[in-house]
Amino acid sequence: MSPGTPQEPIERQRIDTWLWVARFAKTRALAVDAVKGGRVHVNGTRVKPSKEVRAGDRVEVVVGEDRHRVDVVAFSRRRGPAVEARLLYVEREEDRAERELRAEQRRLAGPVGGLPDGRKGRPTKRDRRRYEAGPGRRGHG
Fold first, then answer.
1. Which domains does the chain have, with CATH numbers?
2. Where are the alpha helices (DSSP H) in the chain?
3. pLDDT for 13-50, tens place per residue?
């Protein structure tokens, strides 16, 4: 292909590349790990990183605690901004609403951990000594 000619459209793409381009993974290596780890299904089937997806395929991706169910609609040769990445798939309204509801519940639950007596902020030296002394024992102080 010469430099001035337009590239022919992509009709299919490897799932690991598509996940990276669509910004479900920060790197191709992480996309490969997600696929190999069973966190990616295409049309309800666990796949290998070399599986090619086509427009109309249903992809289910687990990212952290979120489950994304999307329909592939387009492909890209490069990883662009998030606005462009969102044009590569369509997420059903009920799936998006469910994912946002779970995210809101996690946000309202607050951070996991914290100080035993419910205080916020950084532990004091006394807190640290009690922690290092172990359960059931009292630290000095």
1. 12-109 (3.10.290.10)
2. 15-21, 28-36, 82-85, 93-109, 125-133
3. 999 999 999 999 999 999 999 999 999 999 999 999 99
The 8-class DSSP code of residue 7 comes to P
Q: How many secondary structure helices (H) and strands (E) does the chain include?
A: 5, 7
pLDDT per position as a tens digit, 83-101: 999 999 999 899 899 989 9
Instruction: Determine the Cα–Cα distance for residues 103 and 58; give it in Å rounded to an integer.
Output: 22
Tokens 């990883």 -> residue: 79
Centroid of chain to Cα 102? 14
Query: How far is it, in rounded angstroms, from Cα 13 to Cα 54?
Result: 7
pLDDT at 68 exceeding the cut of 50: yes
CB 88 within 8 A of CB 70: no
Angle at 17 between CA 5 and CA 39, to 5 degrees: 160
115-141 burial string, b = 16+ CB within 10 Å, else e? eeeeeeeeeeeebeebeeeeeeeeeee
